[in-house]
Amino acid sequence: MAAIPGPLKRINETQLTHRLKWAAWEWLYREAQCRCVGMEVRLEGPGGRVADLAGVGPENTIYVIEVKSSPSDFSRDDHTADDLARLQSREPSLVQRRQLAEQTLDQTKVYAKQARPDHWEEVLAYRLALADWERLQKEGHRYRKRLAGYSTKFHDQRFLNIADFHYIMAPGGMVPRRKLPPHWGLLDEAPSVRVPAPRKEVRKNTGIISNVLRAIARSNTTSLMHNYGVRFTEDGPVFPGANYPQDTGDIGVHPGIGLRKTSG
Question: Which domain holds residue 26?
């Protein structure tokens, strides 16, 4: 097993994003006085949004931080409900064009088989209709893919209602103050506050706090298991087996290095 690249680092995560996440963790712990912090925390239930970091501080104050390492990463979540509605409004036109292309393809297929029964697929009219149908199929696939990944996280009222404070962590100067979404604050990698987040009046009860704490605990459990080499499969987690690292007496040694995965 290859050496683990860093504590709680995801495989598809850049080093910059990873550093920013730990800077955000440091800010939550030092400045916000959070003693319960997690990365990649799924909030709002099984189908809810995932916060890059969530923390619970004094007086059950809930913090959410989103880490953005590039302008494109930032803009990906900076869509409003109106933006989403405009994108969705394109679907009827795409469906209509695809249906028309299918009808044209069927008609030219009939014509081609009559014109050249032995080589109907070479008839120009059929080939052009087929190319147009394939182009619209690809366009529809790109549209569905874009729609599935279209995020309104920064402006989603449900997401804003789950925490007292929302912050964006980004490299200094990457997010101008004028582009900061409403109800969000801004942190830099120092870590320090560039723009304070306004406190929201979040209606909380014991159940809400318990749900957030459970979500953080689940996230940390999964992250720790990944870090120790546990492999998640359809049949359940596969643990490394009996070859756990021995106590080296040195707390600086990363606990996951040297673990092997069992077969299966």
Answer: 15-79+153-227
Per-residue pLDDT at 260: 39
Whether 252 is in a domain gets the answer no
pTM (predicted TM-score): 0.77
- Give me the pLDDT at residue 138, please: 97
**How many CA atoms within 13 Å lie on the side-chain side of 55?**
24
Mean pLDDT by 10-residue block, N- to C-terminus, for the chain (264 residues)? 53 89 97 96 76 95 96 94 95 96 96 95 96 96 94 92 95 94 96 96 78 93 86 87 53 40 39
* Rg from Cα positions in the chain: 25
Strands (E), the chain: 36-42, 50-56, 62-67, 165-169, 185-188, 192-195, 231-233, 236-238
Report the percentage of the chain scoring pLDDT > 70. Answer: 86
> Does residue 9 lie in a domain region?
no
Could you tell me if residue 5 is inside a domain?
no
Are 73 and 87 in the same domain?
no
Quick one: how far is CA 173 from the chain centroid?
23
142 and 178: one domain? no
CA distance 158 to 175: 23
For the chain, the 3-state helix, strand and coil shares in percent, each to the nearest 5, are 45, 15, 40
Domain count, the chain: 2
